[in-house]
Amino acid sequence: ILNCVNPENENSPEIPVKVLNCDTITQVKEKILDAVYKNMPYSQRPKAVDMDL
User: What pTM was estimated for this model as a whole?
Assistant: First the structure.
């Protein structure tokens, strides 16, 4: 489990994201984006390729 914080609001609570040992970096980024931006339409959220870990 990876605990993430919304970069737009660092005071928000941490969001747990379940990642697997075999996940690629892109898969981990997508899972993080899915968790952090779950209430935002897919077309309006950042793309995985634009994010850094």
Answer: 0.82
